[in-house]
């Protein structure tokens, strides 16, 4: 049992250590954090926010597993779309 715990801890550490995001993706996820905070301020139901947070974490893990060039491409597209949506909704 102890060996399984050590192995699991080592595996989780190696995954989190190798799951770095590019600066473009870091900027994208900061904008998402801002968007979620603004949604909370405007009274978005907690259940909807929780769903968004789960999707956020899943996408962050998936994007972190991509090569840097693919991360940049995906995050740039996401950032552009997010900024357009925020602008249309009057969120800064």
Short key terms for the protein model shown above:
92 residues; mainly alpha; 4 helices; 0% strand; disordered N terminus; signal; Uncharacterised_HI0310; DUF5339 domain-containing protein
Kindly summarize this structure in a few lines.
The chain is mainly α and 92 residues long.
Strand and helix map with partners:
Layout: H1 2-18, H2 23-41, H3 46-64, H4 68-88
Helix pairs in contact: 2-3, 2-4
Task: Report on the architecture of this protein.
- This is DUF5339 domain-containing protein.
- By secondary structure, this protein is mostly helical.
- Helices cover 83% and strands 0% of the residues.
- The chain is built from four helices and no strands.
- The N and C termini lie far apart (50 Å).
- Mean pLDDT is 81; it is low at 1-18.
What's the mean pLDDT score? 81
Counted by DSSP, the helix tally is: 4
User: Distance N terminus to C terminus?
Assistant: 50 Å
- The coarse silhouette is globular
Describe the main β-sheet briefly: none
Estimate the helix proportion, in percent: over 70%
By secondary-structure content and strand pairing, the structural class works out as: mainly alpha
Order of helices and strands: HHHH
How many beta-strand elements?
Answer: 0
Q: Estimate what percentage of residues fall within beta strands.
A: under 5%
**Rg, Å, rounded:** 16 Å
Instruction: Count up the domains.
Output: 1
Low-confidence stretches: 1-18
Pfam families: DUF5339
Organism: Salmonella enterica (Salmonella choleraesuis)
InterPro entries: Uncharacterised_HI0310
Signal peptide: 1-19
């Amino acid at each position: 049992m102890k060996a399984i715990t050590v192995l699991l801890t080592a595996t989780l550490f190696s995954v989190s250590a190798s799951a770095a995001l590019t600066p473009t993706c870091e900027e994208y996820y900061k904008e998402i954090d801002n968007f979620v905070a603004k949604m909370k301020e405007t009274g978005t139901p907690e259940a909807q926010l929780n769903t968004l947070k789960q999707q956020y974490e899943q996408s962050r893990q998936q994007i972190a597993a991509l090569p840097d060039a693919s991360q940049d491409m995906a995050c740039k597209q996401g950032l552009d779309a997010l900024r357009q949506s925020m602008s249309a909704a009057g969120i800064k």
